[in-house]
Design goal:
By secondary structure, the chain is α/β, with parallel strands linked by helices. It folds into two domains: 170 residues, P-loop containing nucleotide triphosphate hydrolases (Rossmann fold); 79 residues, no CATH class. It has a six-stranded mixed beta sheet with strand order 6-7-8-3-9-10, sandwiched between helices. Strands 2-1-4-5 form a four-stranded antiparallel beta sheet, with helices on one face. A hairpin with a 2-residue loop joins β1 and β2. α3 crosses α4 and α3 runs parallel beside α5. The radius of gyration is 19 Å and the shape is globular.
Amino acid sequence: MSALLEARELRKSFGGVKAVAGISIAVPEKSIFAVIGPNGAGKSTLMNLLSGTYQPDSGELSFADHKLTGLPAHRRARLGLARTFQKIRLFKQLSLIDNVLAGFHIRHQVPAWQYLLPGAAFWRDWTRCREEGLALLEFVGLGDLAAQRAGSLAYGQQRMLEIARALATQPKLFMLDEPAAGLNAAEVAFLLQRLRDIRERGITVVVVEHNMDLVMKVADHVFVMDHGEFLFEGPPKAVQSNSRVIEAYLGGEFDSGALA
C-alpha cells in the first residue's frame, strides 16, 4: 500500500532534551498504524509534530501530495488530518450534539452573509450537519444522549464524544493519542471495534497507545520508539518477539507479559 503520511528525519528538542531524534515513518493508506514505547519515549511529541501542534526543528513531513512542514494545525485539518488528545478537550457546558456540530466548521456549505441573515442554504446545511452529527453519536454509542450536557458524561463516554467530534471533520487521517487511557475492559473492547470500523470506512488511523492488548489486536503495523529514537517497527507478532522491544519495556512501566 502507498504511504498517506510520511515523515523524514523529524527532530524536536526542548532545551537540552531531544524529545524526537531523527524519526522517519511511512503510514500506509487505509491502515491502523500504532506508535508505542515506554513513558518518555517521545510518542506524544511525535503526534504533536504530525498534527501541527508543534513544528519540527528539522525534517520533512508530507501528507498525500501536500508538504506539511510549517503548516499550522488548522490548515492541516482542512487537508484531512484530525486528532484527539491525551487530556480530553470538550466544550463541557454544551450538549453532545453541539460538541459534534463544532467539528463541522471546516465543512459548512453556506454563503458568508447567511450567518448574519440565515436563509435556505443555511438551514439545509444545519440540517445536514445535525443528521450526520446524530449518526456519529450513534456510531460511538451515545445516540440516546444527544441533548445531554457533555460535562455530565462518564469519563469513557467523554472519550467517545471526542472521537465523534473529530470524525465530523471527515478526516482522511485520524490520529488518536492514548484513546484507551482510563477505560475499563468493556470500553476498551468497544473502542477496538470502533477503530476497526473507522478503518473500514477508508480512514487511515494512527494511534499512540499504552494498552498493548488493544495494539496487538487492532494494529496492522507497529512503530516502536524509545528515548525519542526509532527502536523497531513491523507487524504486531514481530514486535512481540523482538528482544530490544521487550528490554525497553522491562526497563519501563510494563511487566514481561505486557507484550505477550
